[in-house]
Amino acid sequence: MSTDQITGAGLDQTTTTPAAPPEGTTGKPVGEVSQTQLMIRRFKQSKLAVVALFILALLYLTAIFAPFLATNDPVQINQAYKYAAPTPLTWSGGPAMCTVTQEIDPINITTTYVKDCSNPIRLQFFGQGYEYKLLGLIPTSRHLLVAPEGEAKLYLFGADGNGRDIYSRTLYGGRVSLTIGVLGVAIATVLGSIMGTWSGYAGGRTDNLIQRVIEIITAIPTLPLWATMAAVLPQDTSVTERFFLMSVILSLVAWTGLARQLRGKVMGYVRSDYVSAAKSAGAKAPRIIATHLLPNSASHIVAVAMLAIPAAIIAETTLSFLGIGMTEPAISWGVLLKDASRIDVLQQYPWVLLPALFVIVAITCFQLLGDGVRDAVDPYS
Question: Which keywords describe this protein according to UniProt (predicted)?
Answer without folding.
Answer: Membrane, Transmembrane, Transmembrane helix, Transport
